[in-house]
Specification:
- There is one protein chain.
- The N and C termini lie far apart (about 75 Å).
- About 5% of the residues are buried.
- The chain folds into two domains: about 55 residues, no CATH class; about 30 residues.
- The chain contains five helices and no strands.
- It is elongated, with a radius of gyration of 21 Å.
- It has about 90 residues and is mainly α.
- Helix 2 runs antiparallel to helix 3.
């Protein structure tokens, strides 16, 4: 009988797909989606942060996206502060 990973690999037409590939993809996707690490670890079955971090691989694109989000948040805070300061001085 074929393993479930083997069946998935065959159905996806991805020869050589490993169970760890699926776990890594799930960890990375949940991390990018903002799922809490605790929840992601429970779903994937990791008991330690160290093991989870081995699977939740971060790419350059992840770094760029984080910078964009952070920059947007900071500029929003600065804009709000400027508007509040302006309205308080009137």
């Amino acid at each position: 009988m074929a393993s479930s990973t083997g069946l998935i690999a065959k159905a996806a037409a991805v020869p050589g797909l490993l169970r760890h590939d699926l776990r890594r993809t799930a960890a990375r996707d949940m991390e990018r989606a903002g799922v809490s690490r605790t929840v992601a670890m429970q779903i994937i079955g990791h008991k330690t942060e160290a093991m989870y971090r081995r699977y939740a691989i971060v790419s350059e694109a992840d770094h760029r996206e984080a910078a964009k989000k952070r920059n947007g948040r900071v500029s929003g805070i600065v804009t709000r502060h400027a508007l509040e300061t302006r309205s308080a001085s009137r």
